[in-house]
UniProtKB/TrEMBL annotation:
Lineage: Eukaryota, Viridiplantae, Streptophyta, Embryophyta, Tracheophyta
UniProt EC number: 3.2.1.21
Enzyme class: hydrolase
UniProt protein name: beta-glucosidase
Chain ranges of the Glycoside hydrolase family 3 C-terminal domain: 411-619
GO annotation, biological process: glucan catabolic process
Annotated InterPro entries: Cellulose_Degrad_GH3, GH, Glyco_hydro_3_C, Glyco_hydro_3_C_sf, Glyco_hydro_3_N, Glyco_hydro_3_N_sf
Organism for this UniProt entry: Digitaria exilis
Amino acid sequence: MTSSNASWVCLLLLCFAAMGDAEYMKYKDPKQPINTRINDLIGRMTLAEKIGQMTQIERDVASADVMKKYFIGSILSGGGSVPAPQATPSIWVNMVNEFQKGALSTRLGIPMIYGIDAVHGNNNVYNATLFPHNIGLGATRDPDLVKRIGEATALEVRATGIQYTFAPCIAVCRDPRWGRCYESYSEDHTIVQQMTDIILGLQGEIPVNHTKGVPYVAGKDKVAACAKHFVGDGGTHNGINENNTIIDEHGLLSIHMPPYYDSIIKGVATIMVSYSSLNGVKMHANHALVTGYLKSKLHFRGFVISDWLGIDRITSPPGANYTYSVQAGINAGIDMVMVPYNYTDYIGDLTSLVSKGIVNMSRIDDAVRRILRVKFAMGLFENPLADLSFADQLGKKEHRELAREAVRKSLVLLKNGNSPNQQFLPLPKKARRILVAGSHASNLGYQCGGWSIQWMGGSGDITTGTTILDAIKSTVVDSTSVVYAENPDDSFMNHNDFSFAIVVVGEPPYSETVGDSTNLTILDPGPDTIRTVCSAVKCAVVVVSGRPVVIEPYVPLMEALVAAWLPGTEGQGVADVLFGDYGFTGKLPRTWFKSVDQLPMNVGDPHYDPLYPFGFGLTINSSLPGFSGADNVGDTRQRLIYVSLCSLLSLALINDLGIRVFQHPAALLF
Ligand code: BGC
Ligand code: BGC
């Protein structure tokens, strides 16, 4: 080759290289380190594109065009917000993909992330497996079970094409009058801390050498999680939802904060801010805690999301000064705002706040970096579109078996006969004629509670599952006749001769503020049903409720009492244990009060005088003749001593941890 030829070749190569350079976008290269990709992408983004990333809108107002026009970074389904009633996975996947294509058609093609409240399974979705609500999981004391529930939930969320869940709620509920108490695993923060293992199930097991504070989501079969609601949501005054948590620094750091340490260590991708106030300051405007503590001190590197209309509620009445809400919320450190409807106001206000210098560009960049970090970490750029490969995960048999196991382990036996030698449970499968009664015996909606198909939950056959009545019928032998009467009267009882009765009563479904209650009574005519049935025949009472309820007046009437919490779709788990195929292992995750005027009353309080203490839960003495139950812990007195010792021990642990946490807040992390 002559030298002039050689120079031509060189020039051509240079040209090709230059052309290659123009097309090579570092942020699109999965081989690049995540920080390189973030820096590259952020360097290319306009303010409008950045603010779009910080915007989450409801599916109701979303479309491919809106995604494209406003560069929207995220969509959510609110409670009960579905593409069609009883929508199949393919309807869900098509909807999500349609929105995603809008996002991908933008200049930079940044994928959106779709979030949903999968708080006890993928609970808005017809046919999904609905697991017990958190309070029931707290009763199991079984973090490994909860992790497996996280894995199953991730698959059922992916079945609908969704990549993000607003779970777990890691509230430490300190007052059962709070309408969200069932979303809390326990009044004891150590139990809530253990249950954050659900994050490992949802997002995947975090590698040992993973940098603390950096979000971790393993891949296509996992979802981004959201620890909520930061912080003190379970400590509001008198249990009033979204109200004020009055607490000193020690109390905050030793009771409500610890589950956040665990969640961050486990790589949680996002954290949602609480509607509540802390000592009078709205958490959505709390710079000291959101930026100062969560981001700076705890080194949380995922994104902080607002709650639904959460910034609007910074002012009273909500939305009174939306521009101020945006300013206060974003400057407090919120990265993504769950708007969820009026996104043009939000985008307009934030844009002008930035142009006026009231919100700094560095704040915007911090927010966008965090959002992109989550999207890159979970492989969303590589796999933005869903397919139907997970469709058969929805409500599949193995998941229902897992939910049934969880139901069995969540049941807490509070009374069993009048002495250890006269146990009433387990019930015999072979009997002549048994009665099943009560408002909650044959009502799938009631046993699922709130956040089930609808935001508020519903009554009756809201989805597929097994009611407690169906479960009882399929557990007893064929020759046992099962009579169902929802609310039998005296004459019905007098004209029938039953071997025994099972009465299933409880609370109606509710969510959030609607669930706030000052009387904590069960649904009428529950008390009458108990009185009528249990005065006529020996009965076991099963309480289906999101929290301890007023029960003391009726306890003397019944032979046995079981707390079943909100078991979800797999009612078979209740019958498994009632009839002795499995033993009772659940322990109270909360103190069971005698009367509401004792509230708030938590384990360790000076005025502690419960009906059943925190940690209480009888087991069945299987050594007695005629019983097939699984456990044998000894007589009631021994058990009570054992339970009190455990409570004392856990108190000592709480105190110990409390002091350590107080002295070295971040020491647990690094
Ligand atoms: C939505 C819920 C949301 C609630 C907030 C409802 O309309 O469906 O997802 O939590 O509003 O008030
Ligand atoms: C609730 C959140 C929920 C959000 C979206 C709010 O009302 O407080 O827990 O994630 O709605 O449905």
